[in-house]
Specification:
This protein is of the alpha/beta class. The chain contains five helices and nine strands, in the order ββββαβααβαβαββ. The protein has helices at 57-71, 82-85, 97-103, 115-125, 143-151; strands at residues 9-10, 19-25, 32-39, 45-53, 74-80, 109-110, 136-139, 154-157, 166-169. Strands 1-7-4-3-2-5-6 form a seven-stranded mixed β-sheet. A two-stranded antiparallel ribbon has the order 8-9. The chain is globular, with a radius of gyration of 18 Å.
Length: 174
């Protein structure tokens, strides 16, 4: 009797007032990936926009400004993959992605990529016991993010002295 049907992919109107977090995954040889996630008054998360873009940090900033202005997003924070942000940007020797984006007028903070974040996403994917809806939803226009979430696979690694599975993403689609 506790079983409910739900879906993480919806078509919904985004808010112009809810705080929005821009997430960045920079990459030297593939397109940079970005998501915009809104936090509603119940602390539920809604992925409202995405972007895959080739180019330098100035190109990224320009396109992000265009998206944020056209959607009226209230961006309060920009977070990025700390592993990639602390890696060389490639264009200039010794310059990190973190510095390149800051120099382009697009400052990004390093996100926390610990187990805590992964466990929170797992909780947000489950339906809320009161509303029977998941606490993390994706707008249907965010096809790449939906594609990636559907294909993310955890490896099953177990240490001899531990009873719980060690959550490590498999390299494919990580």
């Amino acid at each position: 009797k506790d079983t409910v049907s739900f879906c993480h992919v919806l078509s919904f109107d985004h808010s112009r007032s809810w705080p929005t977090i821009c997430l960045l995954d920079p990459h030297p040889r593939k397109p940079h990936m970005l998501l915009w996630v809104q936090v509603d008054p119940s602390d539920d998360l809604h992925v409202v926009a995405e972007l895959q873009i080739d180019g330098d940090p100035v190109d990224v900033r320009r396109e992000c400004d265009r998206i944020e202005e056209s959607m009226g997003l209230n961006v309060v924070r920009r977070l990025g993959d700390p592993n990639m942000l602390r890696s060389p940007a490639g264009a200039k020797r010794g310059v990190l992605w973190l510095d390149e984006f800051a120099n382009a007028g697009f400052p990004v903070e390093e996100a926390d990529d610990s187990e805590v974040g992964r466990s929170r996403i797992n909780e947000y994917l489950k339906p809320d016991e009161r509303t029977h809806r998941p606490r993390l939803t994706f707008h249907s226009r965010c096809a790449a993010a939906i594609h990636q979430m559907k294909r993310f696979v955890w490896g099953e690694h177990r240490r001899r002295d531990e009873k719980d599975l060690k959550e490590i993403p498999k390299p494919k689609n990580d």
